[in-house]
Write a structure and sequence with these properties.
about 70 residues; mainly alpha
């Protein structure tokens, strides 16, 4: 294997490594964005769950107040 062959092979390997590195970075970015989206959905689901539980609790409390005043 001549020196020129090794040089061109080295350039080819380095170009492929750089390409793969950019692909990995893009995938990591997508994973981070997905984790952020999931965290936001968890917060929204918790808030809606809290509201969903508060409504019947408030109704029961109001009912209890009305019944105890009579």
């Amino acid at each position: 294997m001549g020196n020129e062959d090794w040089s061109s092979y080295c350039k080819l390997v380095m170009a492929e490594l750089e390409r793969l590195n950019s692909v990995v970075i893009q995938q990591e970015t997508l994973i981070v964005l997905n984790k952020v989206d999931i965290a936001q959905l968890k917060i929204k689901a918790g808030a809606w769950g809290l509201l969903g539980g508060l409504i019947p609790a408030a109704c029961a409390f109001i009912y209890w107040l009305i019944k105890t005043k009579v």
